[in-house]
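queue> holo job accepted (iron/sulfur cluster)
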Amino acid sequence: MYTKVLSEQCIACGLCQLKAPDIFEYDEDGIAYVKLDNNLGTKDIPLPLLAQFKDAYTACPTGAIVRSEVPFPKDNKK
Ligand code: SF4
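queue> job finished
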């Protein structure tokens, strides 16, 4: 599973980092990003982190966290 945050949809609520501190981090504006791969969506989420990923994914109030079974295109950071 691959994931990234659509920054334009993130409202900096803090829930994803609370639910999945090993996956999500915030930039200086409080906008979340995936720290596994600098929000590129190209690194497979390690199996032990999938439970916390699911918690964060379902907790995000805006749908800013997207996921995919395949890596996201590298030229499409957002
Ligand atoms: S839960 Fe969603 S809206 Fe809240 S900080 Fe994380 S990505 Fe942004």
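queue> The chain has a mean pLDDT of 95.
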